[in-house]
Amino acid sequence: MAWEIDPMHSTVEFSVRHLMINTVKGHFPNVRGTIHxxxxxxxxxxxxxxxxxxxxxTFAPQRDAHLRSADxxxxxxxxxxxxxxxxxxxxxxxxxxxxGNLSLHGQTRPVTFAVEYTGHNRDMYTxxxxxxxxxxxxxxxxxxxxxxxxxxxxxxxxxxNEVRIEIHVEAVQS
Length: 174
What we know:
The chain is built from 1 helix and 10 strands.
């Protein structure tokens, strides 16, 4: 059964350490994609999703402009971030590990998301069925060629290399 990601009710968020003392969060509001769920054989399910890199927002315009630059996402050259699943490993009726290829900043690397199916319901306004999913992973941004990290006075790194990605999706039956 196919489901289309609803960008109005979905979030792709990330968090990274700043000065190694605080966590800064951001999100990509422009997300789209297709989820195919096979409830009888969940291992046959799959996901293809894409976010518009230029849609990045940390609610700080100057930082967002820097993140769009060649120091980080280089959005003029790499306008999209994509994920395509390769394997689903169910671990319980509502949880699985979702393996796939994440393409970011011109690099494609395998990643594994811990996914939770959060339920389904009929939309009272459109009468369409909707499902909810949450997914989490941690990546090392250096593996995707994002290495900008000047040292600050006194030593140490400004930006952590580990990036936590959290995705909360609501998808509409198509």
